[in-house]
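Data availability (excerpt). The following record was deposited with the supplementary files.
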Amino acid sequence: MRTDNLQEMVDRLAVRLQRSVTVTDPEIRILAASAHYDDEDEARVRAVLARVALPEVYRHIHSFGVRSWSEPGTVAAAPTLGFEQRFVIPIRQGRTLLALLMIIDRDANGLTDVELNAAMQTTRAMVGILDRDQADLQRRQAQRSQLLSDLLSDHDAVREQARSQAAHIMGGPVDQAVVMTMKIGSPGRYGAEVGLEVDAGIANVELREGSRLAHVYQDGTVTICAVTEHPPSEESIREQGRRILDSVSSLLDENACCTMGLCDEPTQLSMIRTAHRRSRLAAEAATWLPQFRPVAAYSDLGVFSVLLRLRREDLEEAVPSALCRLLEDDTHGVLGETLALYLVSGGSIPVTAQGLRLHRTSLYYRLNQIETQLGMSLHDGEARQVLHLGLKAMELLDAYTRS
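Predicted structure:
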């Protein structure tokens, strides 16, 4: 935002009140901040240095419902956060919340009528600047979201038009794209409020890193596209995915469960739909299967990259009936554990015995029991493949059932 005039207004009001004054956007990112007047607190100092929303302070302020305020009010102190009480004036244009003007009120003395009138006059003067800049920001965000939606469209002409506009909308060359899918499990909270928290978390990453990101949020799923001029490494893609996940989840309700799926290879815009499908599968794996949580890459999935595409009834058919009987009769789980480790080790007796801390003679006895009950030979490579696939399908079915 263009905040020069805004800064002048904040400075004049702070001198008038002899108090520290801050203007933030609705997501608690500082737009303008006055000098300190010996009333600063730890939260203000950290926010001025970071220039982005501090997660714990963000959640504290929004717990008072400030997005819906139409009149000034007080946000109580939170000593554990180093946060003194704030007198807060919402700055609105019609029904749209443009910003919040915050005045530190350490002594809880409030403002005199004259001071309150000066603060209200200042906020009214800020509306024009904030409204113009907010409209510009919202237009850029909407353009990026629409661009991503168009790149993922089923229609060839729409995708081609989007590719031709990508560099202009994203503010620079778009030679490579990395696609991510974030899943947000937040019981009862999939509406506009969560969407705003997602917007804020992703914007914080952009501010800190200078990234160029486009995203679309719908019903607990966030599709994210990071564009670059040069192909990033697989490790840098994973690190960026973790940072985005951390940034967004830090602003959400503490009960929210967030997972991230990555297509860990950069792609051309013409192949972005394939990358999107892969990132969605990785996100599903991270959501359902603990071993992939909280960030999974498509290359990590192994056979789950196929199984996650199947309907539940198809998964059930992938489990041999003999395997089901074996596991049902295996009350202590000994044979199931032995079979799983044997298959994972590629049929290696030494590795399986070491993993189970079992003498080879005992292992051979167990394997013989398994073969007898299955009616299959574990020396048969195709039989091992069928059994391994069946165990993985059962693992996914169990995850679905638990959830």
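Summary of structural features: Residues 113-151 form the longest helix (39 residues).
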